[in-house]
Hints:
Residues 47-104 form the Peptidoglycan binding-like domain. With 245 residues, the protein is α+β, with helices and mostly antiparallel strands.
Amino acid sequence: MRSRLLLAVFALVAVFGAAPASADPAPAASASDACFTWDRELSEGASGADVRQLQIRVAGYPGTGSVLALDGEYGPATKAAVNRFQDAYGLGGNGVANQATFDKIYALQDNDCTPVNFTYGELNGCNSNWSGGNVSAAEAKANALVSMWKLQAMRHAMGDQPIVVNGGFRSVACNDAVGGAPASRHLYGDAVDLGAGSQGFCALAQQAREHGFREILGPGYQGHDDHVHVAHRSSQFWSAPSCGI
Ligand SMILES: [Zn+2]
């Protein structure tokens, strides 16, 4: 009897000892990511490198005509961008970057930190190391990453249809070879040229206004009847007269 009782106790310990681990919703798995893992909830007033990483991921949700500062400070604009991101994915958020928000970001990003529907390769048909532009290779690549997150937001807003990327970063040599403007944003890595895709040029140019692109050039603007160019710059310059922009 005694041995059977001990066995029963051991069995109970085994069952209940193991239960918490197996019944746990595996926070370790959902909270880790090969690119970047947030280890705290973030809300207005927070600051730090993890805030800046969040800002890059929600850079495509700044509001019409706005650009989100990637300054590591969780102010009202970051809160609003997070709220728009949460709304876009039905997370029911309130502008606080909680675990559900981070989990959605993890689901949207590849191990190299690019959003799942865009690649560094697509954004650089010029060379393999991002060198030779108007900024360091690291800065050009970082700029391209931000543009990709803006495009990911735009893609989602347009029904998750593929967006055709025809080019991005150019070294000075690559820019000269295609007759690019001397101050082209392609030299900085943040410019992206879009093909018509299923959306069409005007729909792309119009939608881009919602996603943090200060530079939008499209049909009707010299040299842009066959693509839409989106980029970052210090002041807003949009021109696509054939599309009402
Ligand atoms: Zn361009």
